[in-house]
Design goal:
Rossmann fold, nine-stranded mixed sheet, GMP Synthetase, Chain A, domain 3, 21 strands, four-stranded antiparallel sheet, 11 helices, alpha/beta
């Protein structure tokens, strides 16, 4: 089943003509409404008239997360505040959030894209969709919610938290589809097994995203819960969930190219790589009004394929991500940078600049332990002093990254030093 056949099954020529038309409109919009882009283009000697279609895309400058931070909070908005109806934000390295604004039209397009993704997962207006992503500034919860409503399905806005209550509602409400992180779904599966309730639920599909996961995790979900699991992709800067999603054939994630123009470039040369070659994923938004982005570097490493899928869709497909070009970690759907940890520790008395982040997956949920070197004097103090410092550091770090952290205090010179780039992260999750 295909939600928007006219767009999802266009010929490549028709699609490229539409992309060209929308690119020209977007470039004109940012040039005349966003001072930052106008100055960038003028610096490079580019005028809107120089961009006649997607063949001219390479003339345009790249946009990075640093550009969003530099213009915080609303410097890249291309619509007046009176037209912005929603603001979302994601965490960054400096404490400044990456802020995204949406017009009413943006919200409608976002909802339609998520409806496409849900349809790819076999969800219809006859289904009950439990949304177990976080609601709030994170785009996952409301993105999935609006998409399911746009589709016409019933929505259970569960969010995260009380898993036993979630499982009870899943059974009592006859939930047939769930949107959540893959690690949380496996946690739900374990609880269902413990409660002896797996045979009493009607779940048939899961739409999972917001963190890396593997085909092995997919198999575990499908075998434990007797469902089909689908991979949805998005990032708040570009839109949120619903930029791409895989179909029942699981041969890559279909990018909704009528709204998001993808490129794959070499992170070193910044030049395009060939089809099926791995590089950094770059997006240009083609229909966004609130925050249109030109050639936004996602830092995600993948490859792209343009052949027609067995499902009938002609949209390009991106492969599962093989990594990132930066040091960002995604832990339970939260973006975490080592530099955030470092900045928070440096502001505290009694700690040294040496720390180690240990990421693991325990019981299908990601965990984060931060080992912190503290001054020698603390190890000669009473136990209660160490406990007090541990609690204080835990509180500071949770405020810095928005995630509960286990803190372990260690003596000075305990953490291994490196002659080269310091090793601050050990990721024990099996993500390949």
């Amino acid at each position: 089943m295909i939600w928007n056949e006219s767009k999802e099954c266009m010929s490549r020529d028709e699609l490229q003509a539409l992309q060209s038309k929308r690119l020209v409109k977007t470039v004109n919009r940012v040039y005349h409404n966003v001072e930052y882009y106008r100055k960038r283009m003028q610096k490079e000697g580019i005028e809107p008239g120089d961009i006649r279609g997607i063949e001219d895309l390479s003339k345009l400058p790249y946009t990075t997360k640093d550009d969003l931070r530099e213009t915080y909070p609303f410097g890249l908005f291309a619509a007046p505040q009176s037209e912005i109806v929603r603001i979302h934000a994601s965490s960054g390295t400096t404490g400044k959030a990456t802020v995204v604004g949406y017009t009413r039209k943006d919200i409608d397009i976002w909802a339609e894209c998520v409806a496409r993704a849900l349809t790819q997962a076999g969800v219809t207006r006859e289904d009950t969709v439990q949304v177990a992503y976080g609601y709030g500034l994170f785009t996952g919860g409301l993105g999935a919610h609006y998409g399911a409503e746009y589709l016409g399905a019933r929505v259970v806005p569960q969010s995260t938290g009380n898993t036993k209550k979630l499982v009870t509602m899943m059974k009592d409400f006859g939930v047939t589809a769930i949107a959540c992180t893959p690690s949380y779904l496996l946690h739900i599966a374990e609880l269902l097994e413990e409660m002896g309730e797996i045979g009493n639920i009607k779940l048939k599909a899961a739409i999972c995203g917001a963190e890396p996961w593997t085909d092995n995790m997919r198999r575990q979900m499908e075998e434990k819960l007797h469902i089909n699991a689908f991979d949805i992709y998005g990032l708040s800067e570009v839109m949120g969930p619903g930029v791409a999603c895989d179909c029942q054939y699981h041969k890559g994630l279909h990018v909704y190219e009528d709204h998001f123009l993808p490129e794959i470039i070499s992170p070193e040369t910044l030049l395009p790589v060939g089809e099926n070659e791995t590089g950094e994923l770059v997006f240009t938004t083609l229909t966004k009004e609130g925050l249109p982005l030109i050639r936004y570097r996602t830092k995600d490493l993948t490859s792209i394929h343009y052949d027609k899928c067995e499902c009938g869709r002609t949209l390009a497909r991106i492969s599962r991500f093989t990594g990132r070009t930066d040091d960002m970690l995604i832990i339970r759907g939260v973006n975490v940078f080592p530099s955030q940890i470092e900045s928070a520790l440096l502001e505290m008395a009694g700690t040294t600049p040496h720390y180690l982040m240990i990421v693991d997956r325990v019981g299908n949920l990601d965990t984060l332990e931060v080992q912190v070197e503290v001054e020698e004097r603390f190890f000669s103090d009473e136990i209660k002093e160490l406990e007090s410092l541990t609690k204080k550091i835990s509180h500071v770090l949770q405020n810095a990254i928005g995630l509960a952290v286990k803190v372990k205090l260690v003596e000075p010179r305990t953490i291994e030093r490196s002659m080269g780039k310091a090793v601050h992260v050990i990721d024990n999750r099996k993500l390949v």
